[in-house]
Amino acid sequence: MAAESDIKSVWQSVKPMPTKRVYSSLAICDGQLYVVGGCDSSGTPFDSFESYRLDRDRWYRLGNMPTKRACPCVLAADGKLVAMGGVSTTQQPLNVVEMYDVAEKEWTQQDVMKDSLMGMSGVVRGMIEPASIVDMLCS
After folding, report:
1. CATH says 12-138 is which class?
2. Distances (CA, A) of 80 to 46, 59, 92, 100
3. Which of the 8 DSSP states describes residue 22?
4. Using one digit for the tens of pLDDT, what is the confidence trace for 111-139?
5. Distance between CA 139 and CA 135 in Å, rounded?
6. Alpha carbons 97 and 47: distance in angstroms, whole number
7. Helix (H, G, I), strand (E, B), or coil: what is residue 12?
8. N or C end of the chain, less CB within 10 A?
9. What's the pTM?
């Protein structure tokens, strides 16, 4: 077995995303890269949602998020993505929480957070149920 210091990382180019954007958020879930929200070229947040599969070098356009937003915090756990907060189309912080079920290919709105937040990030360590993430933020 190779020691961690012996493992080499290599950058490689992939096909460009179908939708040009800035201020999007990324998460990896079940082997796919998901790109959530962002702003168009005029700086307006939108609800675009796409995924990329490295094994196929292919992008997929997915159903839009319920809320247009840039810079949401996105966490992946147990086959689900949880998108929290971000910046609204009026350039204000959001308290919105939405969950995407990868298997069902469906967004559902969750309870709102106590505070509107933007510019945050998060990490999931160990095993956690996505509902626990929502409970921690919204209760």
Report:
1. mainly beta
2. 21, 19, 26, 5
3. B
4. 999 999 888 877 776 665 656 665 655 55
5. 6
6. 14
7. coil
8. N
9. 0.84
